[in-house]
Specification:
Length: 237
């Protein structure tokens, strides 16, 4: 797209946003909510937790129309025309308007087969030399953040993916150790397919945020949805 085309697209988006805000203001006195809400969220969290909460919201507001896009890649809210984004971890972009919805707790996990072959690390220093599975867009940063004193150069990356479910299945198959949030591994741990490690060194909880694009007023229906999600999720960790 040319620079002029991008400028025109942004201008058009701003005009539509102002029209939507004008309609929202006109309906502010009414109890009903109406209109579209465009949302982006991580795939796995969207399927397991967000979808049921969104369905409940729509069931209670017949004139609200949701457009939900699930993608583990972080997208530009403004460029994509999104009203709301769901992020795991505080957004690095300070121009976004964040609202914390809930907390999740990450765990280091491995399959029983892998641990039988390679041993169970009892302390973080025992992780050196182990095979690990990582997100494409983060690589070893999750391990660096979780264990600052660990020499991550001694970790062997065996598998990368942009999707948490894929990484979990690779861990179940015995390819290595993995850091994932509880909502992705709880069922596998309960079923005995994965084992949480380092119980004496718990990882810090991570917040899940709803974020709005900069420079755009937050519509009444979007605010109502955010409040609904905060209530629906509650503390998860």
């Amino acid at each position: 797209m040319t620079e002029a085309g991008a400028a025109f697209q942004q201008t058009a988006a701003d005009v539509l946003a102002r029209l939507d805000q004008a309609r929202d203001d006109a309906e502010a006195g009414a109890s009903r909510l109406a209109g579209p809400i465009r949302i982006t969220a991580p795939l796995s969290f969207g399927v397991t937790h967000l979808a049921p909460a969104l369905a409940a919201f729509v069931a209670g507001h017949a004139e609200v129309v949701l457009d939900v896009r699930l993608d583990d890649q972080v997208v530009d809210l403004q460029a994509g025309g999104f009203d709301l984004g769901i992020r795991i971890g505080r957004p690095p972009n300070s121009s976004l308007t964040p609202r914390r919805l809930t907390l999740v707790r990450p765990y280091v996990v491995g399959s029983l087969d892998y641990l039988a072959r390679r041993g169970r690390p009892a302390v973080p220093s025992h992780l050196a030399g182990h095979d690990v599975l990582v997100y494409v867009n983060a690589d070893l940063e999750a391990w660096r953040a979780a264990f600052p004193k660990l020499d991550i150069g001694r970790l062997n990356v065996r598998f990368r993916s942009d999707n948490g479910d894929t990484l979990r299945e690779a861990a179940i198959a015995g390819l290595g150790l993995l850091i994932l949030p509880d909502f992705l591994v709880a069922a596998s741990v309960k079923g005995g397919r994965l084992e949480p490690l380092l119980p004496s060194h718990p990882l810090a909880s991570a917040a899940i945020y709803a974020v709005s694009p900069p420079g755009r007023p937050i519509l009444r229906r979007v605010r109502a949805l955010v409040e609904h999600l905060a209530t629906a999720f509650g503390p998860m960790a």
